[in-house]
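Inverse folding, one chain.
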């Protein structure tokens, strides 16, 4: 066999749509407690357990890879994997991805040093403020939506200090006065505060954004029928209570299974009753 034909066969195998006989190839990144890696670099976490259970019921199975955040997103963007999770819905992602049913609900909010004079946030208090966050990520996307509203209401937006990893370091910088506010996924922030025994940090009121996490399947690699088939497996886990038990073990919230497949808009996010 010529080198050209061998290369062509390898290429076709890599880009083939998953189907009968093909495991779904998924990627996750360091976003505890949802997804992270053990000491051997293997994917683990609450949603890894949940998705693995669905994959176990799929005849062709799945392969779940762990990669650093930027690498994981690049693999999905380049079509090197079939899916990534957990993902929130954005207009840009809707163009390229088909989303699963919700697999967990989560919330986002602002954190500050415990001795901060701030109590409840508003557009006026956020105006001109330096705010840390994790990105590029859905977290950063949400903060940018809030920033648009702050600018629309006050004329002066926030300054974003984007950290490369969703870990305790971003929260610790509040204690070190690197910035007065940090915007984060609440489950992730609380997990890292507990795991690292980090004191001197508290959550602020004024913004409490609820989001449904899903699996994003690459449209160029996974057919809508295959996504529907996987959704059927997720539905089985919900019906049997398997998914609920996994989420409870990790202190995660139940998803709104009837939530519409839409992204949050930029309007009216600065409300403490947002749901």
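Residues assigned per position:
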């Amino acid at each position: 066999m010529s080198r050209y034909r061998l290369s062509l066969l390898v290429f076709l195998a890599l880009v083939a749509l998953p189907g009968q006989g093909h495991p779904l190839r998924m990627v996750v990144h360091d976003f505890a407690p949802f997804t992270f890696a053990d000491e051997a670099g293997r994917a683990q976490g609450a949603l890894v357990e949940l998705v693995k259970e669905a994959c176990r019921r799929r005849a062709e199975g799945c392969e779940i890879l762990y990669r650093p955040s930027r690498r994981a997103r690049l693999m999905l963007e380049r079509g090197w994997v079939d899916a990534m999770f957990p993902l929130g819905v954005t207009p840009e992602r809707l163009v390229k991805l088909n989303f699963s049913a919700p697999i967990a609900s989560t919330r986002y909010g602002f954190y500050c040093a415990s001795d901060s004079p701030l109590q409840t946030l508003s557009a006026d208090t956020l105006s001109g403020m330096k705010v840390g966050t994790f990105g590029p990520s859905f977290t950063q996307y949400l903060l940018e939506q809030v920033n648009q509203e702050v600018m629309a209401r006050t004329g002066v937006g926030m300054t974003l200090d984007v950290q490369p990893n969703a870990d305790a370091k971003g929260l610790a910088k509040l204690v070190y006065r690197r910035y007065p506010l940090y915007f984060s996924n609440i489950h992730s922030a609380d997990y890292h505060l507990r795991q690292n025994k980090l004191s001197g940090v508290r959550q602020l009121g004024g913004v409490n954004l609820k989001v449904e996490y899903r699996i994003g399947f690459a449209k160029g690699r996974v057919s809508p029928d295959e996504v529907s088939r996987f959704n059927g497996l997720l539905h089985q886990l919900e019906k049997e209570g398997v998914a609920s038990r996994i989420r409870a073990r990790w202190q995660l919230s139940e998803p709104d299974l009837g939530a519409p497949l839409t992204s949050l808009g930029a309007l009216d996010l600065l409300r403490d009753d947002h749901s």
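Confidence is low (pLDDT under 50) at residues 6-15. Residues 107-209 form a domain with the D-Maltodextrin-Binding Protein; domain 2 fold (CATH 3.40.190.10).
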